[in-house]
Amino acid sequence: MIERLQALERRLAGHSKQEWVTQEIGKMRAGIRGESSLDYHLHFIKEDYYKLNSIRLLGGDYYFQMDCLLVNEKRIILIEVKHMDGELHYDDSSHQLLQVKDGCKKAYPDPLLQVKRQAHQLEKGIKTHSLPYIPIEPYVVFTHPSAILSSSHPRVFPSDYLPFKLNADNDQHCKSVWTEQEQHLFIKKCEQSHAPYSYDVFQRFQLKDDDLLQGVLCDNCSTVTMDKVYGGWKCSKCESFSKDAHFTAMKDYYLLIGDTISNQELRRFLRLKSRDTARQLMIDMNIKPIGRTRNIRWDLKSKFVQ
Length: 306
Ligand SMILES: [Zn+2]
Fold this sequence. Notes:
With about 300 residues, the chain is of the alpha+beta class. The protein folds into two domains: about 1-195, no CATH class; about 215-305, Orthogonal Bundle (Arc Repressor Mutant, subunit A), CATH 1.10.10. It has ten helices and 16 strands. The protein has helices spanning about 1-10, 20-40, 110-130, 160-170, 180-195, 200-205, 245-255, 265-270, 275-285, 300-305, and strands spanning about 50-60, 60-70, 75-80, 85-90, 95-100, 105-110, 135-140, 150, 155-160, 215, 225-230, 230-235, 240, 260, 290, 295-300. The strands form four sheets. It has a five-stranded mixed beta sheet, sandwiched between helices. Strands 6-5-4-8 form a four-stranded mixed beta sheet. The chain has a four-stranded antiparallel beta sheet with strand order 10-11-12-13. Zinc ion (ZN) binds near residues 221 and 237.
């Protein structure tokens, strides 16, 4: 998904909605940074766990996404990761998370309620698969190193405290409730049912095909398209030359528009005049043709599959 948004960001250079897309990418990156910085602290947990990251499951009519699950035969630790900076105040009586940053105050929904809802849905899922009851412990951890957090709730704290909390609790949890097979079955079910988060970017950002910049974009100038010259592409502004700048353009097409392309569509998107040049580019990139001579389409998926 992040790759698709990055392609969209490139293709919206100079467009009024580019900023919005950039912000979405920033949020997604913060999530990824939060989860990887949590990994460091997880090394200090004494117990053995199987870790599942960013698992998104269907619970009833809606999907729910869990940032991090630690599973063993005694319990499941469900962690909501927040990678936010500034001053953060968690107030469990008003069920709000307040962030004060750069002089601005912003309220967010209660992250503990959120992770408790996930725990409830996960519990229902476990029942459906006829697995025995297992305690699920929800936590909210804050991973940003410069965040100043105030929280008096025992389940809401900075990430470096997590191993201490879990190691202390471990002494009270000495009974296994799942067999090794049951634990494996749970993990397998989670991985099989995982539905990666994805959405139609045109719908989400209210865009039309025409909003996208067409052509092969110059790496230096970003909004400027390059012209086809012998053996590669040349920027009309900075005059830089690239042998394979069309590669990124083709990938953008694949990520944003479709997984197959016709010669005509290719010429339009790359702003090429010659049918033969377009065809030769596909052959040189080792992109497989589908169908017969007149209606031939090129299978971008075979080249760019993620
Ligand atoms: Zn340029």
